[in-house]
Design goal:
heterodimer, A: about 350 residues, alpha/beta, eight-stranded mixed beta sheet, six-stranded antiparallel beta sheet, 12 helices, 14 strands, B: about 80 residues, alpha+beta, Ubiquitin-like (UB roll), five-stranded mixed beta sheet, MoaD_arc-typ (chain B), ThiS/MoaD-like (chain B), MOCS2A (chain B)
Chain lengths: ~350, ~80
């Protein structure tokens, strides 16, 4: 511990005891995009015991403007974000046990991933996953920290089961996807501001300073100079299906989970097979090459050019179809190549 | 009178970050309807509402002088 964390332990609310606690904790990071990169870097530098970082995507050039863990080499190699993040994080702090999980964080997968976890950080880009995290958090009594941003607008909320309202108390139902993602773009300072709110809350929770945890929903617009903090204690709803008396955890029902999703703002459809696969990418790559397709790949995925569309296939059978927002067309392309 | 504040893309849809109107006696749901009728581009269905910086449900009644803020959940990350 010594010198490395001296400035952090000098901070009275952490101290040496707090540092010991930080060191003993396991954080689950859902998403390794902009919020995931920044949150993961700060918590890794802070000296947590273990970080599990989960992401379904790979690094692209358009990520580099704000996703602080990635480099041009990662783009060149089309590395999965979780893998690229993990290798960078290990260089930053070799004391932290970093686990990279390249998968889609479905409700089923989350049940597996949360075992032994002390805190979940939301670094996702969609409400389907957030609502699943929210239910998981209530079911296993693990706090989580919501964070989201678009353009110059960002927001965060700390959710502590049994103490605070949950995200479902506030939103009542799943917000419509894509209402804003296509329009606003994103500037890096917005991301950093959300990360600051999330990681400050994370440190409080990791040192178990529960009284210091923010009990309001914070939102801000860095370009329009608006900042608002909304008290939410009254929002706790005893009838809430996620955290109320007769809870059913509606977002953990995998029957309700979509198998294909239009990725917000990306002209891309994700197809997820009902059962996880274990594809032999080498064989598939050779097979597709012999059919006349241009195929590139690495140990984690292969990328297939198909005229206006490009298909990226992961080892677990999941595929991203770039160049379309049409679910049916995407499924056709998927089935054409993978049966 | 009431000061009604708009955040994120709602501000762009309305064209300004706040408007003054008399909403006293109305519920949050009624105010949302009134605003949606007035500004066609504004959809407040999934939007969170704060009255005087405190979370408010759709059933809550607005009083004279209350500041009402509409905060849309955004999904990026």
């Amino acid at each position: 511990m010594d010198e490395r964390y001296s400035r952090q332990t000098l901070f009275p609310s952490i101290g040496k005891d707090g540092q010991e606690k930080i060191r003993s904790k396991h954080v689950l990071m859902i998403g390794a995009g902009a919020l995931g990169s920044g949150n993961a870097e700060i918590l890794t530098r802070a000296g947590i015991g273990k970080l599990t970082i989960v992401d379904r995507d790979y690094v692209e050039a358009s990520n580099l403007q704000r996703q602080q863990l990635y480099t041009e080499q990662d783009v060149e190699k089309k590395l999965p974000k979780a893998a690229a993040a993990a290798s960078r994080l290990r260089m930053i702090n070799s004391d932290v046990d970093i686990q990279a999980v390249i998968t889609d964080a479905t409700a089923l997968k989350l049940e597996e991933l949360v075992q032994g976890v002390d805190l979940i950080i939301d670094a996702t880009d969609n409400f389907e996953t957030r609502m699943a995290i929210n239910d998981i958090s209530q079911k296993y009594k693990i706090p989580w920290i919501f964070g989201a941003c678009v353009g110059s607008f960002g927001m965060s909320l700390s959710i502590v089961p049994g103490k605070t309202p949950c995200l479902n108390c506030l939103l009542k139902k799943m917000p419509i996807q894509g209402m804003t993602c296509d329009t606003g773009g994103i500037i890096a300072p917005t991301v950093q501001m959300v990360i600051s709110h999330q990681t400050a809350e994370a440190l409080k929770m990791l040192v178990e300073d529960w009284d210091a945890v923010r009990s309001s929903f914070v939102s801000f617009d860095l370009w329009r100079n608006q900042y608002t903090s909304m008290k939410v204690s009254k929002a706790k709803d005893e009838g809430c299906l996620s955290c109320g008396i007769n809870r059913t955890y509606p977002y953990l029902d995998s029957e309700n989970m979509m198998k294909s999703t239009v990725l917000c703002g990306r002209d891309t459809v994700q197809i997820r097979p009902p059962m996880q696969q274990d594809l032999h990418l080498g064989d598939l790559s050779r097979q597709l090459t012999s059919l006349g397709y241009t195929v590139k790949g690495n140990p984690y995925l292969i990328s297939v050019e198909m005229g206006e569309q490009r298909l990226v296939i992961f080892k677990d059978g999941r595929a991203l179809i770039h160049g379309t927002k049409d679910l049916a067309q995407a499924k056709t392309i998927y089935h054409r190549l993978l049966g | 009178m009431n000061n009604i504040l708009f955040f994120a893309h709602l501000r762009d849809a309305v064209g300004r970050d706040s408007v003054q109107l008399d909403a006293s006696g109305k519920t949050v749901a009624e105010l949302k309807q009134l605003i949606s009728d007035k500004y066609e581009a504004v959809n407040l269905e999934h939007v969170m509402t704060a009255i005087n910086e405190e979370f408010a449900s759709n059933e809550e009644v607005i009083h004279d002088g209350d500041a009402v803020a509409f905060i849309p959940p955004v999904s990026g990350g």
